[in-house]
Prior knowledge:
By secondary structure, this protein is mainly alpha-helical. It contains 13 helices and no strands.
Amino acid sequence: MSSGLRRIGPKRVGLGLIGFAVVVATFVFVLPQIADYRDVWDVVERLSWRWLVALAAATALNVTTFAPPWQVALPGLRFLPALTMTQASTALSIVAPGGVAVGMAGQVGILRGWGFAGSLIARAVTLTSLWNQFANLFYPVVAVFLLALSGQPTAVLATAAFVGVAILGVAVTALGLVLYSDRMAEDIGDAAAGGASWALGRLRRGPVGWSGRSFERFRRDAVDLLRRRWHLLTLATFAGSLTVFVVLVVSLRAFGVGPAEVTLIEAFAAWSLARLLGSIPITPGGIGVVELSLTGTLVGFGGANAEVVAAVLVYRFLTMVPTLALGLASAATWRHHRLSA
């Protein structure tokens, strides 16, 4: 066996096969059972130019909101370089094995190439990732509350929200304790490093290369920025994710899934659940998982099958393909932004 195959390992190959099976099952077997692709194409062909313009505008808005969280988390990073970096790293996370980890490595590599200090990069990567995950966990909670107010059933989403609240509570508490004092940060970091090293040992891997000292350094770097910019980072993070929801809403309305079939609250509930499930690294970019979750939930709320499938597929196309195209271009041109970073 070659060294490359040994590095990949049977577990990673197994996970890759599971992800491939999910994608094939979704697009070859499940979605065609919900709506024949010929019927879906008939719906797409009826799209008016006004809705095409609306979809293009929503997509452009979504793309522009990738950059602001990074501008907040990494002072000195301007809009165009931030957009270049986020498009390139997001494209990597979609197409490369390893998903989010590869995307984060791309972020670090590009920012280092622009001359940013390693400690500032680590702080920005950590904070933007944490705030994004906090948002993913927060949305199902809001969705359950809104559905309850409107008298809608919340059984499935309530389970996701309960898990989200638990994880969010632990994560926010841990972050608060880390930021409270150097001693607390070091103790929590040592405990986390010990747990991670134990888990890696069970997988016959070496211990982690970080300790409580790393958490202490992060605290010192993060406290000052969060004291001044936590509200800006929160607003930028919510704006960045909610523009994705805007693309979904415009897609639904463009293909005839109106408020009488799926209300704005129901669309938000379906989106928040799909976003949470899509963050689980089963397939790159949640391909297959998001489509299946969104379609099933929206049809369950009352959306017409063919129209919902058309809307979901176009929504996923608009939130992935433009980023892939821009990401490839960004990966080829990011060095040209060195002086403007």
